[in-house]
Amino acid sequence: MPPSMEAKFDEKKAYVAQEEEGQAFVGLMSGAFDDGREIELLHFVYGHPLINEIRGSPSKVLQAIDEYARTKKYLMNVGDDKGKIVTSLIAELKPKTMVELGGYVGYSALLFGNAVREAGGHRYISLERNPEFAAVIMSLVDLAGLTDVVKVVVGPSAQSIKRLHGNGTLQHIDLMFLDHYKPAYTTDLKLCEHLGLVTTGSVLAADNVIKPGNPPYLEYVRSSVTEKRERYETGENGKGTVEFAERTRDQYKKREGEEKLSTEIKGNPNLRYESKIVHSFEPTGVPDGIEITRCVAEE
Fold it and tell me: How crowded is residue 84: how many other Cβ atoms within 10 Å of its Cβ?
């Protein structure tokens, strides 16, 4: 059921709207980041009149980030509404190790890393490709007093996953939050399956499956084992980025260059998932949802 029929967004907490090429827009768009606002956020937080109260408090650091995004410039954070979906999942699952793909300025690392610690977990690994964004995350994680739980890893997600697995740092993923380059959701999941990091009992929470959307990922996690085996045997393994709108496909092109996804790793088609969307809102009020996927068996 769409969120408008079962929940109402509180406009008082909405992030500010943005403009791109003269047109006002709200939500996740390619022009709404990597223009200096991330460093500006750091100055805003550390120059906050309540900085002494903010230090050592994950919730107060999050409040300061939200304040900036509501009064200054939009930040592409998961936000409070969708964040509650994942923190409830953390409280239920009590993951020992949680991984996020895409950290941006650390909103999710702060919110979910603190929830993992409160649930008795030991490690929250945030993979962020952009070294400047990663530096922002590390600074805010330190400010919040979460360095004992949150580890930030810089580099492309697939390379980082392989490296962490290869050196023994990451042996199993209890819960994974996907919020990075949208075409990489499926390829990175298949890589985790291939390496045995995602197995029976693992749970996935994928952001932005409505806004801007991710049809290939939803098709994969909602497919039966039989359907996945058929595609596996025929060699059909996705079409890379061609199934995405240009704006989503080229979101990081200016900074990172042309993205080339590996479609060679086919994953483990024998894993059976139960998957459903939980409707919610972007922090701007735009309807969106989190796809919650549970690996329930290997056939």
Answer: 15
